[in-house]
């Protein structure tokens, strides 16, 4: 069977072409990316230090605990930006012997540290707010106070949107986290401004109650940031849309009958490695399969900037009537099971009367092992003349 696969050089020096090319482009990308993250963070540091200075001044002038806490929050934001710079610096370091896949994951750790800051500020603000609710203090708002708080709202909204936009563009979780934090800061300042207006018009002191409510939102934000960062560090499921598009593109390559078991490894923004198994006709030569594998690597790297480091092979002969009939029998039985996503890697040894294949069982099944055993029992009952070996595969990607 002939295939229209692209031929690649077989010289030993060219065997690692794609991996070397990947990390060369990765290092260039990470260097430029780190510079942009650092530039953005410096803007945040200068802005927050300026706001903190003004807020501390008017906070003590008016005896407002809400404004003083807001100022301390701005100081912590400056510290968060410093952590982001440190994280970006380490993430941009080139791979070395100890960390051959680079240092991109250090950014996830910086996101965790920022989340801890956010939680600390939220808890501190909640405690202080409760104290002021129990023991109110007299406040004396000035025109300067209103001007500074109003300006802080505008600046923080701008910083929040700017950080989030840059963070998403640069795939920086720490920048996105800082942007969310800045928007919550704007909400705190807005609550403070509302409290000032209420006090000036009705003489009611409600800033402590508003601060307590905002504190709870800050705590929620910190928990959400931390959970997101830990989820990535632990190794979360890749995007359904992305994995389906990748497998569909692989399946379109000449000689590939299907793509399965796509596993993706995230080593930080711009550094994703993957492995995949493909189904091909059993009659293909080693040279044909080698060409297909290299074509897959080239296609996926060019379109998604992801390197396919390993391509596994499932060889099948569906032109053989016996194999095709057995395959349809197993497929039809699997279709009766709600939580069996797919079967693949189908192999028949007509001489030894052996059938082997994998099944992917959805995590939604209450007991995947029991579900698997029930399916295997039914398959063996339907094909008593064959020794059936079924592997329970992991539902790693869609």
If you had to describe this structure to a student in words, what would you say it looks like?
The chain is an alpha/beta fold. It has a 3-stranded mixed beta sheet with strand order 1-2-3. The chain has a 3-stranded mixed beta sheet with strand order 4-5-6, with helices on one face. A hairpin with a 4-residue loop joins β4 and β5. α1 packs antiparallel against α2, α3 packs antiparallel against α6 and α4 packs antiparallel against α5. The radius of gyration is 29 Å and the shape is elongated.
Q: How many helices?
A: 10
Radius of gyration: 29 Å
Principal-axes geometry comes out as elongated
CATH topology label of the largest domain: Alpha-lytic protease prodomain-like
Mean pLDDT: 82
Could you spell the SSE succession in H and E letters? HHHHHHHEEHEHEEHE
Structural class of the helix and strand makeup?
alpha/beta
Termini gap: 30 Å
Tally of separate domains: 3
Largest sheet geometry = 3 strands, mixed
- The CATH class assignment of the largest domain is Mainly Alpha
Under the CATH scheme, which architecture of the largest domain would be assigned? Up-down Bundle
In the sheet with the most strands, the strands line up as 1-2-3
Which homologous superfamily in CATH is the superfamily of the largest domain? Answer: Cation efflux protein transmembrane domain
Low-confidence stretches: 1-17
Helix content bin: 55-70%
Number of strands: 6
Beta-strand content bin = 5-15%
């Amino acid at each position: 069977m002939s295939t229209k696969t692209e031929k690649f050089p077989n010289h030993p020096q060219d065997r690692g072409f794609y991996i070397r090319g990947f990390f060369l482009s990765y290092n260039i990308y990470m260097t430029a990316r780190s510079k942009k993250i650092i530039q953005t963070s410096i803007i945040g540091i200068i802005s927050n230090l300026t706001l903190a200075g003004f807020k501390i001044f008017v906070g003590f002038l008016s005896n407002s605990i809400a404004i003083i806490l807001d100022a301390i929050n701005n100081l912590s934001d400056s510290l968060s930006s410093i952590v982001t710079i440190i994280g970006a610096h380490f993430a941009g370091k080139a791979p070395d012997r100890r960390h051959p896949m680079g240092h991109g994951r250090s950014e996830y750790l910086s996101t965790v540290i920022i989340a801890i800051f956010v939680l600390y500020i939220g808890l501190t603000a909640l405690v202080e707010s409760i104290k002021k609710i129990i023991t109110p203090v007299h406040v004396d708002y000035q025109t300067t106070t209103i001007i500074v708080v109003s300006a802080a709202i505008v600046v923080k909204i701008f910083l929040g949107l700017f950080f989030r936009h840059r963070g998403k563009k640069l795939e920086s979780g720490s920048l996105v986290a800082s942007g969310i934090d800045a928007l919550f800061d704007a909400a705190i300042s807005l609550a403070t401004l509302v409290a000032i207006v209420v006090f000036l018009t009705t003489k009611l002191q409600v800033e402590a109650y508003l601060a307590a409510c905002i504190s709870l939102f800050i705590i929620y934000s910190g928990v959400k940031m931390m959970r997101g960062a830990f989820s990535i560090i632990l190794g979360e499921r890749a995007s359904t849309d992305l994995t389906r598009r990748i497998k569909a593109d692989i399946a379109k390559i000449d000689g590939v009958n299907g793509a399965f078991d796509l596993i993706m490894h995230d080593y930080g923004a711009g550094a994703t490695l993957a492995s995949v198994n493909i189904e091909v006709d059993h009659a293909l030569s080693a040279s044909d399969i080698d060409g297909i594998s290299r074509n897959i690597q080239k296609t996926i790297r060019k379109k998604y900037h992801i390197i396919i480091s390993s391509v596994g092979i499932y060889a099948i002969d569906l032109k053989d009537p016996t194999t095709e009939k057995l395959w349809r029998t197993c497929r039809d039985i699997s279709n009766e099971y709600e939580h069996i996503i797919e079967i693949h890697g189908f192999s028949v040894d007509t001489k030894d009367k052996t059938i082997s294949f994998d099944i992917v069982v959805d995590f939604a099944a209450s007991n995947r092992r029991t579900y698997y055993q029930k399916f295997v029992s039914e398959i063996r009952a339907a094909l008593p003349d064959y020794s059936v070996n079924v592997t329970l595969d992991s539902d790693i990607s869609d």
